[in-house]
Amino acid sequence: MIPxxxxxxxxxxxxxxxxxxxLIKRNLITVFMSIELMLNGVNLSFVTFAHxxxxxxxxxxxxxxxxxxxxxxAVGLAIIIAIFRAxxxxxxxxxxxxxx
Amino acid sequence: MNGHLYLWLIPxxxxxxxxxxxxxxARLPKWLVTAVALIAxxxxxxxxxxxxxxxxxxxxxxxxxxxxxxxxxxxxxHVDFSLVLDQLSLIMLLVITGVGFLIHIYSVGYxxxxxxxxxxxxxLNLFLFFMTVLVLAGNVLLMFxxxxxxxxxxxxxxxxxxxxxxxxxxxxxxFIVNRIGDFGxxxxxxxxxxxxxxxxxxxxxxKLAANPAWTGGILTTICICLLxxxxxxxxxxxxxxxLPDAMEGPTPVSAxxxxxxxxxxxxxxxxxxxxxxxxxxxxxxxxxxVGAATALFxxxxxxxxxxxKRVLAYSTVSQLGYMFLACGVAAYSAGIFHLMTHAFFKGxxxxxxxxxxxxxxxxQDMRRMGGLWKKMPVTFWTMTFAVIAIAGIPPFAGFFxxxxxxxxAFTQGTAAGKVFxxxxxxxxxxxxxxxxxxxxxxxxxxxxSPELHAHESSWTMLGPLVILALLSLGGGWMGAGxxxxxxxxxxxxxTVEAASTNLEWTLSGLAVAAAVLxxxxxxxxxxxxxxxxxxxxxxxxxxxxxxxxxxxVYGALIVKPLLTAxxxxxxxxxxxxxxxxxxxxxxxxxxxxxxxxQKWQSGNLRSYAAWLAAGAAVLLLFALATWNGMLTHVGMxxxxxxxxxxxx
Amino acid sequence: xxxxxxxxxxxxxxxxxxxxLLQKHPINSALSLVVVMSSLAVLYLLLGAEFxxxxxxxxxxxxxxxxxxxxVMLLNAGREERTLGSRAAALLGFPxxxxxxxxIATTILKAQGLGxxxxxxxxxxxxxxxxxxxxxxLLPFEVTSVLILIAILGAxxxxxxxxGEHPRNKATFAGNAGRERRVSK
Lengths: 100, 648, 185
Prior knowledge:
The complex is a heterotrimer.
Chain A: E1 2-3, H1 4-24, H2 28-52, H3 57-87
Helix pairs in contact in A: 1-2, 2-3
Chain B: H1 9-24, H2 30-56, E1 63-65, E2 70-74, E3 77-80, E4 83-85, H3 87-110, H4 117-136, H5 140-158, H6 165-196, H7 201-209, H8 218-233, H9 242-245, H10 251-260, H11 265-272, H12 274-277, H13 281-302, H14 308-328, H15 332-359, H16 372-375, H17 377-391, H18 397-410, H19 415-443, H20 459-474, H21 479-491, H22 501-526, H23 541-545, H24 550-598, H25 605-626, H26 630-640
Antiparallel strand pairs in B: 1-4, 2-3
Helix pairs in contact in B: 1-2, 1-4, 2-3, 2-4, 3-4, 3-10, 3-15, 3-20, 4-5, 5-6, 6-8, 8-11, 8-13, 10-15, 11-15, 13-14, 13-19, 14-15, 14-18, 14-19, 15-17, 15-18, 15-20, 15-21, 17-19, 17-20, 18-19, 18-22, 19-22
Chain C: H1 2-22, H2 26-46, H3 50-75, H4 84-110, E1 116-117, H5 126-136, H6 138-159, H7 161-165, H8 167-184
């Protein structure tokens, strides 16, 4: 018997670790991966709630999240490639085209 | 209140004249401007005559009109537009509109070549409007409106030739000094309101009458505040300094405003509120002291003046002192009597002086006049009438009124009364002296400026002179006794009749002797002169020519510190600190916040990410803080959708 | 048994996530993320979501992470350097996120009425899932397929060999920027 709250805590931890990665990582791809980590944390919490309420809609939501994450990953990585070709670097601090 | 006397027309007709001439005057032909300007006071005079006729026919006084038009209705303060006609205001109105009309006629000739002709008559009509409002007012606040208004009109007319710096300065000086007096008046009004709860004069009088033992205390304070106002308006010590400078205005203005009407507003006000002054012997004493001191003071200065209008200005101050003295010894009717006769002969003096100045092409220095009696006979004879009247020689008007004042002072009952009488007597001597000095210097002897080609003025100017001369001759023949009886219901009788006839004759004789003595002195010194001043070697001459240096003292003690302080305040506090500081602060805030906000647009991906996360965190915290039980709430929503998953 | 499995795979999850943060080379981070995904799949199984567990492995770990790895290798991304901003970010980021985590944790732990998971709970059948997906939520399903189509088009357009390396693009980009800077001065 695992309490639901443990699953939820795990999901929160994963989410927060994702945020940390999003903030502190210097490589653009790693930042992107942290975003994926966040999405996974959220997925876990959806599945948990789906189990708790015996409602399948939570899992449907996870399904759609996965689909969208896939699309987003594709486009995002394509952008990263384009940026790399333009700037020659993947360091987050160097990509400051919008600097005044 | 029987029959409608149309009192409201008396102020409004001149006001209509002001509006028409003021707004359209520049575009109207001159004859139309003149017509409007003359019809207004004439019509007003007509209404006053109609009222006087009704009084003679037995109309009841006081006649109150427009009392139900409410002006202010706030809490305990109820002020309406009531116009009150009683004996006192009737006399004043006759003088104002009558003499005013004559001066209007005179001005047509005097100002005929002036470019601001329409403006002059607009202001003159405006003045008449305010003065009649002042006199007709049934409550103190309406009187104050008129009071301020005549100050305004005076400023406009003194500074009529505003391109001349001295004229503009004189207008400012008049208005500012008046303002100081008005401040005292205003304090008095506040105190009146606080004490009596009403500003209607009849109500205040009734409340006082119901309380016969109430004297002194707050009433003295009120009276002194009112006196300060009167001092400013009537050019008494210490607020007289504006009147000599006011001679910068056109001479008819000096005649109307600074001789006949506006400056008498202070005397009128004291007579009007006599029921207050009667309750405060101290205030009355102060009034008398101010009056007597001013009379003497101004007379001494007038002795050495060389500008013909300045002599008359100081003479006005001095004569107003007489009127204040009369009020100070509670002989209000004597004061008003002198006010009336003074309007006649002082108005005449000014108008005649204006005729002289006009005839000489603008010359005002008496040392350059002389021998005009042949060239300007009508002016000469009318002015002679006026000079004899002001000197107080019977049977001219001035004798009766001045004599009444002196006798009231002597028989007042205290030792102070005797002092006042003596001061008044000596001043009468000085008055006679300097007026005859003026007469000799201006008209007699050999012409000192023949190149000026003196000529007599036109009949538009001479007509009023003649009428006023006749009034100066016969204006006092009704006698102070009958005059006082007429005013009795308003002002209250002074039980002075107890004086013996012997005393009367002695005092009158002394007064006449003083006048004749003054004439003799002037005759000896100025009969034959070439313009040298015989008094120049007399002790105290420099003090007098410098007018006791009062203007300089005021300038150094009051004006200069105020100017310096206000300049400092304006430049440093307002300009630099407040405005500059505000601008600097505003700019600083914007620049500073801009510098901070600039960091948002750093182009740095990571900082964008950080702000994103921060915003999300804030929203999350906010949601958690405000939505209690959100988890179960959201869960219940999903549960309500009845989607089971167990094997359906 | 249940507890052991949960502890094991939950621990693996967190450890791999931490490893993702702490590794300097992106390829190591990518591989750690694969481990996270896989452990999550096991946890889904424990929660009775068998289809999702499979989808997680196939889609996430099998496709998306492979894509990441491809890109890492394609771009030859090297070790990360230390820059000025990274220290500040680390300094500020950790405590802030810790606070947020604390808040969320408090909320979760305080919540009432949460149940428990046991191995005997029924497993979600794929039939049930597909019923909802293809019947009640058919429109969103079709929309997502369009979404994927658009994503494919976009990715192809952006990542095409000619888009970034075009000499004209590079020159104008640098040249315009340079010219703009000079003019604005």
